[in-house]
Amino acid sequence: MTSTTSDPASGAAVRLTQTAHGGGCACKIPPGELEDVVAGLRGVTSPDLVVGLDDGDDAAVVRIGPGQAVVVTTDFFTPVVDDAYDWGRIAAANALSDVYAMGGRPVVAVNLVGWPRDSLPLELLREVLRGGLDIAREAGCPVGGGHSIDDPEPKYGLAVTGLVDPDRLLRNDRARAGLPLSLTKPIGVGLLNNRHKTTGEVFPQAIASMVALNAEAGRAAVAAGAEAATDVTGFGLLGHLHKMMRASGVTARLSAAGVPVLEGAREALRDGYVSGGTRRNLDWVRPSLDATVDEDTLLLLADAQTSGGLLVVGEVPGAPVIGEVVPAVDGVTVQVR
To answer: Closest by alpha carbon to 251, among 288, 211, 205?
Structure first.
């Protein structure tokens, strides 16, 4: 199955994934490089800043009163699929996910757009924005305008503001030994997206996973008493697990066989559709990794996700348990068996 978006004016096929060097969260700056850039950077300090730069959490959190805090995040990226409407939906769901990953509720968003106005018709941008609005509407989050620039590569996302109870916050540095690890969506969308970019094949199962909101998963995690969570995006399952365990001073023991995988992802791995971002993820984590599985399995676990599920320390009803948190093992943040 293949799909393209058509230029409304000329009727010519447009493959949006061919207009940018990377796609989705796989086009993030590599995690090691990013950490080097932000190391030591500090803005205005405030006793009300509950979560900031320290542990690379999903969003900033500022206390605004008793029992209430504001969650602020932004996320945008280049086209991950060729269909403009689907790209808009995926990008919006991905941006909203950061609020859900903190245990919050999004209350307002604004659009972020980069568009090559001389090479792509504005009618396609309308479709991207329509997709984003539909997902925001599903989330009950109004979109109040935004900002756009003329850009050589198309980019789209949202800046999102949410609300959260600071005493029921989900964050990176609260993982505790003795608790299980749950994952609320299967992995493998990075492999399928890379195959799509290369061949034009469309994978509805990947699109369905990426546009699915993490709203219910976030509510369920909070209701279950979880304190630590993150969403799995561009750094892959291994990368996000490594960040959480490092911040918490513990080690994760991951069961590779228990991790859910999207249909077709293993075949894409076998056929070589591994992104550069995925390989960089594995290289970053490897010094802190203790694994007895093969290299292909590690690449799958490092697959750069776009709009992935929530990785929760604790049990989430309906989500598979993929491992457990154990006391710190010297020099190791993740064990894979």
So the answer is: 288
Q: What is the DSSP secondary structure assignment for residue 190, as one 8-state letter?
A: H
DSSP structural state of residue 30 = P
321, 296 Cβ separation under 8 angstroms: no
Q: DSSP for 158-181?
A: EEEEEEE-GGG--BTT---TT-EE
Q: How far apart are CA 224 and CA 22, in angstroms?
A: 37
d(CA 311, CA 327) in angstroms, rounded, equals 19
CA distance 267 to 269: 5
pLDDT digits (tens, 9 = 90+) for 275-287: 999 999 999 999 9
Tell me the backbone φ, ψ of residue 33, rounded to 5 degrees: -65, -40
Q: Say if CB 306 and CB 80 are below 8 A apart.
A: yes
- CA dist 253 and 323 (Å) reads 5
Instruction: Work out the number of other CB atoms within 10 angstroms of the CB of residue 2.
Output: 11
Which residues are marked as active site? 25
pTM: 0.92
283: how many CB neighbours lie within 10 A of its CB? 13
C-alpha distances out from residue 247 to 55, 167, 175, Å: 6, 19, 8
